Amino acid sequence: MPSAPRFGVNYTPSEGWFHHWLDFDLDSVRADLDSLAALGFDHIRVFPLWPYFQPDRALIRPRAVEQLLALVDAAAERGLDVNVDGLQGHLSSFDFLPAWTRTWHRRNLFTDPDVLDGQAAYLRTLAGALADRPAFLGMTLGNEINQFSAGPHPDPDRATEAEVDVWLARMLDACEEGAPGRLHLHAEYDATWYQDDQPFTPAQAARHGALTAVHSWVFNGTAQRHGRTGTPTEHHAAYLVELSKAWAEDPHRPVWLQEVGAPAPLIPPEHAAAFTEATVEHALDCPDLWGITWWCSHDVSRGLADFPELEYGLGVLTNDRRPKDLARVLARAARTPRPAPAPRTTALAVPADPAQRSRCAPGGDVFDAFFRLVADGARPTTVLDTRARDTAHLAARGITEVVAPGQVLPTPQGGTRS
């Protein structure tokens, strides 16, 4: 764990969005990175688009890899470390999958032997090319790749939990073979924690890879139910950080808040800075937080078509690289020293059975009980119901009290728990 949580952004190029790989302009990238370094960030997460880098299963384009290395080197010159996502995958409502996995060549992303061979070769190649760069943090397998494995995706690549286990182990091994000892991980959207039939499970998220990644988006029903200033809305990112800890074997496994943003219109632009400040402050009160990486660096150009409206304005900087108020909030948080948070001594018991994950989702009894505790002044974490009497596990995490969701009663005055 670093001595203090890290602050960074998911890098969305100001010119061409992620299609910039087709017309790579290093000067434009450098200008983007200058605008980020000026705010005091210490890392970025970058996104090679998989079909641009590996258009054929046997072709990983050398020129594309060289461009990625040039970006990483430019970031390093500005004091920015770099995490690289591999299998893109899914970004901002668009799917980017190579033609050798779709339509006439339709093969399952998680189970087909030839596809797995191609994926492993690609991840190993990227990691190997980056292995000697000191600024390279490690690989993330792909961005929210679990969205391909189940509904509501319109054409899912179905897999079982056991098949996902095998896939995760093989892909993470490929990253480790390419760049031994780096922080290699995988990252899913919140269906992993909330959707009963999702084959990517909380246990996999909390046990595979060097650390746990969570992606917090309050358009999942949280802000719709509770409003932009509701306790669950402002604490949603912290909730996911603490929820993930229930499944971890390591009592102090690092958790990376790898994506979090202020989506309009649920968070109107004039209130984005206040939401950002609240979200960051509550997340920083979570022990073992590796870092916070905001989505995203620069707004999407209005010259690009067909994005959902909210995607155009998520940047901490405008499309012409001017910082917004929320950028100043993040910059201030990044440079403000603070003591390490105290252990969270009250734990809410959550179901170990992945078929009951919807209880943890917005509207579920676990979700509601957690935020009743928060509203009453507690600093809750979570523990699996199967570990609620495991005194060694509880002691290792500093937990002194375990409560079940049904024990947490509403207190209309929002007073202190007795």
UniProtKB/TrEMBL annotation:
GO terms for molecular function: hydrolase activity. Residues 334-352 have a biased composition (Low complexity). Residues 334-355 are annotated as: Disordered. It comes from the Bacteria. The keyword Hydrolase applies. Keywords: Hydrolase. This is Glycosyl hydrolase.
